[in-house]
Amino acid sequence: MESKSAGRFTLGKQSSLAPDRGGGADGDRDRSEEMELPADIDANIRLMYLANEGDLDGIRELLESGVDVNFKDIDGRTVLHVAACQGCLEVIELLLEKGANVDPEDRWGSTPLADAIHYKNNDVIKLLEKHGAKLQIAPMHVKNHRQIPEYEIDSTELDFTDSIQITKGTFHMATWRGIQVAVKRFGEDVITDEDKLKAFRDELSLLQQIRHPNVVQFLGAVTQSSPMMIVTEYLSKGDLRAFLRRKGALKPVLAVRFGLDIARGMNYLHEHKPEPIIHRDLEPSNILRDDSGHLKVADFGLSKLLKMAKPVKEERPLVCEDNSCRYVAPEVFRNEEYDTKVDVFSFALIMQEMIEGYLPMNAKQNDEVPKLYAAKQRPPFRAPLKQYPHGLKELINQCWSENPADRPTFRMVIDRLTYIHDHIAQKQRWKVRPLRCFQKIEVIWKKDRSSKTTNRSSRSTSSDF
């Protein structure tokens, strides 16, 4: 168990991530000078001084007297941090032998391995890695604290005590400054995987630009420590996939209302200035429900900016791993250039699924479905005709057209769905009006009948007299 102190070790080379490192221009110190330690100095801080000097006998004596090898000073630095900075190979071997934690983080998120890398102590790097040390520094880390982005969230402020996985499993619920938030955590491999790092940066860049009632709100990110995270608003109602799994086929009026929510969010992205945003992964798991029952588009991990109105292309062929490939446009599967119309294709499949109550091409395996789309096949319409309000089936057919140019824009989709929604509402009003009319006639008839009965009773009573 590690112990802590209000003391601070200030001599020698400091943390590689500290905003202001002491000890000269590069933190070096002439170790030929003898350090005179105060007699009453805390034993834990004395251990750090001895590690800085490379005093093996002194270190061994203190550890055997009961001093904690994993003690942390006020900055969270351990004796292993100090030894790694100084490049004391024999000291590090002794500390590890005595049970030192190999990957402790100081207050700036730096580990002994990170410090050794910074000060180019190659033998120490090899030794620490041999004992399981892994680089924890976030690749987006800045050396000057003034360069830390405004959206940066201190990872220590995120409380995962009662955390649960939400949506696809990459998101977790957490508490941040008294509110529930959704946190997308990126694995340690993002540090060394250039593709994953680029995806993180792209998603972060997009989220900072987006603000719309039908798009999930970005709150901040953790980029200065590992694991890196993206923090967004938490929507407790879950995603559309879970909702459809519970409810099955939706009533036409609800399906159309949901369709309008999705279309409004997507239209905002497609009309984004100066460059449109392609979502490229629009499917029910990436659409969330808020407390009022409205939908919001989420998860921009595969999104792309359509620069200079030029089509984009995937860097590698599509790999089907889950249901998401059931919503991918054929031009993406064929690894061709594509534009915003791929999202319109995905929208058509979601719209039909809400009416039909089952996955697109539900009888087929995930990896078979994109091939069927490329072969110009589409999911069949099986629901009764009355489930499709006038004009909806035609809109779906147009949205999943083989030729992307024949697919409507989301601005056009909104107009069409608004007309369909108004038409449904008008039909419902016509159903209600006659019913109310008959109810009023019945009330009048009963009232009139009651009045006549009362009059007869009065006349009968008068005649008896």
TrEMBL record:
Residues 1-36 are annotated as: Disordered. Residues 160-424 form the Protein kinase domain. One of its GO terms (molecular function) is ATP binding. ANK repeats lie at residues 42-74, 75-107. Keywords: ANK repeat, ATP-binding, Kinase, Nucleotide-binding, Transferase. CDD domains: STKc_MAP3K-like. The keyword Kinase applies. SUPFAM superfamilies: Ankyrin repeat (SSF48403), Protein kinase-like (PK-like) (SSF56112). InterPro entries: Ankyrin_rpt, Ankyrin_rpt-contain_sf, Kinase-like_dom_sf, Prot_kinase_dom, Ser-Thr/Tyr_kinase_cat_dom, Ser/Thr_Kinases-Pseudokinases. It holds the Pfam family Ank_2. Gene3D superfamilies: Ankyrin repeat-containing domain, Phosphorylase Kinase, domain 1, Transferase(Phosphotransferase) domain 1. PANTHER family: INACTIVE PROTEIN TYROSINE KINASE PTKL (PTHR44329:SF140), SERINE/THREONINE-PROTEIN KINASE TNNI3K-RELATED (PTHR44329). Belongs to the protein kinase superfamily. TKL Ser/Thr protein kinase family. This is Protein kinase domain-containing protein. It comes from Vanilla planifolia. The lineage of its organism: Eukaryota, Viridiplantae, Streptophyta, Embryophyta, Tracheophyta.
